[in-house]
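Risk register update: the risk of archive-format incompatibility is retired. Evidence:
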Amino acid sequence: MNAPAENAINVLVTSRHDEDCKRICSILSNENDFHITGIVKDIAGIIIKSERFKPDVIILDMQPPGMSGEELAPIIHRKSPSTAIVILSENEEENDACSAVKAGVSGFLLKEKDAKILSYVVKLVNSGGLYVSSSIFIRVFNAIDFKNQFPGQVINELNTTFSPIERSIITDLANGLSDREIAKHLNYCTGTIRNYLSGIKRNIKLKNRIQIALFSLVYGLIRLEQLDIWKNHRQFAKNEIQ
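Archived output:
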């Protein structure tokens, strides 16, 4: 285990299962950005240690004995308001995720699918971000008014779903470039760009290029400031004023 850095993120690990605790600690121990402040398995221990240690992040089993994660989250926040909570769940249920987020949980991951990105999510929520597993993200996003309920937080889940090259392709597409123009701009062959676009549509279940562009703007994959049409309009408006 690497020695934690001076400004390491203090993490309290909670689970009723020894194997889960070991796996979580093993993942975080690969980096010196984290310091495990404790491991607890019961409700009383979670509440007492959250108040005593004031950890930066608590990793919480979705079903701690005697209480659900979303029931426990408000209690933790009363004891330690600045602590971010990440729930690990065995169930791919959007209702569980919605309830957890509404209760103040900053991260909702699936144990089997999302373990590989646990360290990323801990860093994200510690910096004020919000993460929901990719399997249920769209459904949860549509069920909760994130922009009004979480105006200061970053909904950054899809940034892990798409690679940098895919986000570049999406930006070029939104700027009106054809497949051939995108390929020339990014130094790829046209067939490769088409394969990427097919994968993007399949990944987020969209039908065409227009839907990709609109989806990417709505969900924050690209910003208006990145688009030529926005830049040109602002320049046009500036010239009109002058």
